[in-house]
Write a structure and sequence with these properties.
Largest interface: A-B, 130 and 130 residues
Oligomer: homodimer
Radius of gyration of chain A: 24 Å
Strand order of the largest sheet of chain A: 1-4-8-5-9-10-11-12
Structural class of chain A: alpha/beta
Order of helices and strands of chain A: HHHHEEEEEEEEHEHEHHHHHHHEHEHH
Strand content of chain A: 5-15%
Largest sheet of chain A: 8 strands, mixed
Distance between the termini of chain A: 48 Å
Shape of chain A: globular
CATH architecture of chain A: 3-Layer(aba) Sandwich
CATH topology of chain A: Rossmann fold
Number of strands of chain A: 12
């Protein structure tokens, strides 16, 4: 997205020390562009673009950095008042599977690793394990622990006497397959040639993720049945998927701000993020390792995502129409306070997470569907040994042109059949009214299809109204007390939950 | 966003006719990228990216095109089932002002043109003129007319006996100041040097737009008071702004799916579009005229916009989880039907509208605020002759750090004071429950502050529930009968409007 000339060595002023020091990587294109209009007569002054200057400077700095010095850039990024959901990861353990995992859409990982962290103690009966699942971009570091004392993304939620009580439960959290915080993903080396998979990484699904997690649970902890599987957002998908894949190996399921199948609006929002990222020339079709990463595309993708994570009313109260500096004239670069907030959120994330992981994990979310047809097709594909031809549909846009498209009603019936597989389980579904990424009707849908199946499971639905939380999709990270009470009651078997 | 090497002439196979014919503009970088992984051993096949191939090919074609042949590219773009809201414009008339217009934020246009079209006849009393206002990207072509027989964007809404009845009213529609369909905008030549303004164009506001329209109304039609000012989306802003600027020159006001001040969520959504567009290297800080335009950035910006124009429930019914071709494996390029729809919407728009116009007009929407403080500041700036220094806030993100930030309550009170200026007028506000870009609470806000002022105006509020329209923000283009009835009643003085 920046001018691509940043790697070119261009002439520099021999007398300028500043230029000299940075000359190796400085492009003069920016200066040329500025000069092109500075000398000519103009009815109004040329607008300035400090936001682009900043991105170009960053690009130049990254061009000069060796891979090892990139970490310094990460640490010197601006920080702000937002709760950080992802971390430069350390202190996790690794489960290494020498067995291959065959994937829902025909791919294979000949071997793989899953990063994980734990809190609390596994009891002697091995029946107190709670597996918590992360959202898209989070690591296994849900809470501080001796090997990584930084606060985790659910720091206040987990601990002795807390909503996930480490006095009672043994808590395990993994980095998902496809991620970049220790588990095998696109940035990992393909054992076939020792080079990063990049976009040779196979398409994965949420169900693939939980099947990898289950190998960890069995092999590292020798646990045959987990007490609960708990997660929010994509973690809410994983919670349901784990029960779906292994209904006899889960006692209770908690799915927060998730869904039982991704809906087109959520797919559309993730589509925009992927397309923006893939359009960054530095993305280079996924082969950017050892080069300048697509930090601009990542920043923009994160800005779009951030819009979907919160709610309008929160920003109304928090930012209103206030500008970052109302004494200055308006600008096309970030100007209103809400813009500088988004800019900051994007900037903070753009080097923290691997771009290819974002693409693959985001795609896995789109593909999530516990309907009968989708899961049957996946099982069939995994079982077959057919070599996959990984191409995309070249056909032009045509509405409902396929013979096997489903109407809304057919699709819902398909979901009912698929979900009946877990309708005998105890399942708590939590929804947040102010969530626009996973609107509450999607959580209601989970609860409704489970209840309608009438198979004896304790199906509970708990909704946080706009009067309780206006944090939107991020509520599970911010309104711990509001989501914690019904979850603790459900997990610990108390009655009287308002549902 | 594409590799920037497309203009380079690279070596080609001398024996290949295909290569030979296209060699002038073909980059081999794509082939290099593909080859880099095709020969090595890999656990899974490399993903393909036909969507990027297509963009690169388009870039190459545009590099080869002369400006005049660009029009052919526009005409050969795919077409689809969507109602087109913008057109390659022809058949409009021009109002040319030799007088300068001084702008709200200190800029000036030494002279300017406003493109307009009309339908119906101005009566002898000159009191039947209805001025309709466009949304962000529309032209003056609201309806077919002898000089342009193509359907307009409100074709079914305007005509003899229709909701805007040309038997009774003389309808005028303009292309907004800052646009690219005949009115003066960033693509126009700066009289100071005869070169396109580009980003030397001054920041404009919605109030600036209507002050330019008023010169047209006075000078071309000698009308001292318009019967009504009618518009949706940004047009709904203009409707209110026209009355605000000239309260004695408007009889009735209709504002559909608009607001009285832009709220942070809408600003955030437009911010993302602008940043994505400005990150396209072809944008070149606005100086792309005569070069390859930033078609990729425009496409992506339009895709994001399209997500905000419709509603989740509509897509649920229309696309569901259907894929464009379910026989193929999933892909990171457009794959689900909703993705191919967005891709198509972006593709259709990316060469139809000027990128700089999108930035400036989108920014004008952000700046819209009929609160007292904002309008007083604008009036002061216009009146002063101070030379503006066009810079953006370089300060880092900091929440509510300014001394003159307003709390939500202060801001609402400021709006009440500002809006009291038009509260004696007859004003119809229309909102659509499924709109996420301009949520109904923003239309309710308009009606509430006007009613609360209690100044004798006939203030009506009409809301279309989800049971009536799930077209979201686009409802005004698609549910003509639902929005038409209350508007016709209001304009023609009938009673009994459900409000």
């Amino acid at each position: 997205m920046l001018r691509a000339g940043v790697k070119r060595v261009l002439a520099y002023k021999p007398n300028s020390n500043t230029y000299k020091a940075l000359s190796k990587c400085y492009s003069t294109e920016r200066n040329i562009a500025a000069k092109s209009s500075s000398k000519i007569v103009s009815s109004n002054p040329q607008l300035l673009f400090p936001c682009l200057d900043k991105l170009e400077k960053k690009n130049e700095q990254l061009s000069c950095s060796t891979p090892s010095s990139n970490n310094e850039n990460i640490n010197t990024l601006e920080t702000g008042p937002e709760p950080s959901y992802s971390f430069v990861q350390t202190g996790f353990k690794i489960f290494h599977s020498k067995q291959p995992i065959h994937l829902d859409h025909g791919g294979v990982l000949p071997e793989y690793e899953i990063a994980y962290e734990t809190w609390g103690q596994l009891n002697s009966k091995r029946d107190n394990l709670i597996l918590i699942h992360t959202g898209l971009s989070a690591s296994s570091h849900a809470k501080s622990q001796p090997n990584n004392t930084k606060n985790g993304w659910w720091e206040g939620f987990i601990g002795p006497g807390k909503y996930l009580d480490t006095n009672k439960y043994f808590i395990v959290c993994t980095n998902v397959l496809g991620g970049c915080y220790g588990s095998t993903g696109p940035s990992s080396k393909d054992p076939a040639d020792g080079k990063p998979y990049a976009t040779r990484f196979p398409i994965i699904t949420v169900n693939d993720m939980v099947r990898a997690q289950r190998e960890l649970i069995k092999n590292c902890f020798n646990v045959s049945k987990v007490w609960a599987t708990v997660g929010a957002s994509m973690g809410g998908m994983q919670s349901l998927a784990y029960a779906w894949e292994f209904p006899d190996e889960v006692e209770k399921v908690v799915s927060i701000s998730g869904c039982s199948r991704s809906h087109p609006y959520s797919i559309a929002l993730r589509h925009c993020q992927r397309q923006v990222l893939m359009s960054d020339p530095n993305w280079n079709r996924g082969f950017y390792y050892g080069k300048v990463p697509p930090h601009v595309g990542m920043k923009l993708a994160r800005e779009i995502a951030t819009v979907t994570y919160r709610s309008g009313p929160e920003w109304e109260y928090r930012f209103g129409r206030n500008r970052a500096d109302s004494s200055r004239p308006p600008a096309l670069c970030p100007d209103f306070l809400v813009e500088t907030y988004l800019d900051h959120a994007g900037e903070k994330f753009c080097l923290e997470y691997d771009a290819n992981s974002l693409l693959y994990v985001s795609k896995a979310m789109d593909l999530f569907d516990l309907g009968e047809q989708n899961r049957a097709r996946a099982a069939h594909t995994r079982a077959s040994t057919t070599t996959r031809s990984e191409t995309v549909p070249p056909i032009p846009y045509e509405e409902k042109s396929n013979s096997d498209t489903l109407s809304a009603e057919e699709s819902l019936n398909d979901l009912r059949r698929g979900m009946s597989r877990i309708a005998h389980k105890d399942i708590l579904v939590v929804g947040v009214e102010s969530d626009i990424l996973f609107p509450v009707w999607q959580q209601r849908e989970i609860a409704d299809v489970l209840k309608d199946a009438n198979k004896g499971g304790d199906i509970r639905y708990f909704e946080l109204g706009n009067d309780v939380s206006n944090y939107g999709h991020d509520t599970f990270l911010l309104s711990l007390d509001h989501i914690g009470v019904p979850i603790k009651d459900f997990l610990e078997g108390n009655s009287g939950v308002k549902s």
